[in-house]
Specification:
single chain; mainly alpha
């Protein structure tokens, strides 16, 4: 049995969205490593007592990691039923994490809100996942 017989025809877009998210996470991780070197924050210290900008860099990465598992689950569920729409929503969410991080990197935590548009993608895949569950239950 070929994978194309199991997954929806356009699920490749979902897979590419996951690859894009891997690029984003790698980028955020590299920025934390660069920040550690620049601001002298040694492992295993998570946050600096002196360098607010480092803390903002670290929080951008940490916050993304905090929500990433939930996003992955909802992205898969939504992608199985609505692969193209879920991929568009996923790209919106992943792109917003760059905007979120770049705003945070300024050292002004309020500028992280530059990525608030990501809620469109995040809540979108949650709603599509709920719709999928309701359809499977025959309620929708």
């Amino acid at each position: 049995m070929a994978i194309q017989d199991v997954l929806p025809a356009h699920f490749a877009y979902v897979i590419l969205t996951f690859f894009y998210s891997w690029i984003m996470l790698s980028y955020l991780g590299v920025k934390v490593g660069q920040g550690r070197k620049k601001y002298g924050v040694k492992y295993p210290t998570m946050y600096s007592d002196k360098e607010q900008v480092f803390n903002c860099i670290q929080r951008a990465h940490q916050n993304t990691l905090e929500v990433y598992p939930q996003w992955l689950i909802f992205q898969v569920i939504a992608g199985l039923a609505y692969p193209v729409v879920a991929s568009v929503l996923g790209v919106i969410w992943v792109t917003s994490r760059f905007s979120y991080a770049w705003g945070y990197y300024t050292g002004d935590p309020q500028k992280r809100m530059n990525g608030a548009y990501g809620y469109i993608g995040y809540l979108g895949v949650i709603l599509l996942s709920l719709a999928t569950a309701f359809q499977m239950l025959g309620l929708f």
